[in-house]
Specification:
Number of helices: 0
Strand content: 25-35%
Distance between the termini: 150 Å
Shape: rod-shaped
Radius of gyration: 48 Å
Helix content: under 10%
Largest sheet: 4 strands, antiparallel
Length: 290
Amino acid sequence: MFSLFACETNIAPDHFKCEPTEPGSCPDGWICQKRGSDGIHRCYPSESGYCGDSNLDVGEACDGTQFNDFTCEHGWAICSRDCVPFCSTCGNGIIELDISNQGEECDDGNQQGQDGCSPDCTIEKYCNIPTDVSCTEYCGDGILNGPEECDGTQIATWYVCSDFDFYGGELGCNSDCTLDLSLCSGYCGDAQVNGIGRELCDGSDNGSLNCLDSGYDGGSMACTYYCVHETSCYYYWNRESAGVTQHIHSVFGDPSGTIYAAGADGVVVLKNTSGWNDISTGEDTEFRGI
């Protein structure tokens, strides 16, 4: 005959290790958790609390938003999932939050200011008028930020006067942080031919050019909105004497501008820059064409 004796579970939490991924690693009613800073999973009775219940239990330095005497000189005090506290590090490029999503608002990987994220990892707020206590950037702080085109002597480097159809000058800054164009100079429409070759005319200024200068016989030149000429010039026929008494039957002009004429009694004449010249053949010949 054998005697049976009832057994009672009596495990010391500080000594019984477990594996959280293995079912049955802890007795019923116990929970496998890693508490403290040694990184070891152990069995704890669930009725005594557990890491993650937002209560400070035995072996826990923090739980959720609850801390013992842990504080941070810099950064936010954050409790890990293993109930181990640490301080957030602003500038490591990681937004660190506690279980209640409190902590860093931003982290751009540096501790510089005026770049959208402050040295204490709070979002730098831009406002037009610095009346909000949370405002860290505003028009008038002398620094380019927010939607500003300029601020004081600071001008956005991607802007120059030529971006606004001026030929030269310097950009200034208005009090509302918009660009002041009053110091820019020369543009199509100022009634002066300028721009070093970009304008042929401007308004009533035709650049000292007229139809006769362009080789026409008459007409007028106007100036378009784009500062180029719009011509109403024309050529017309002139009655001229070739200096001969014979009848002229045929006339021809070549691309050089020379004009040839021929007719009765072998007459041949040409006109060039020196005027009309008689180059007749001297023979009794009737020329009908050239």
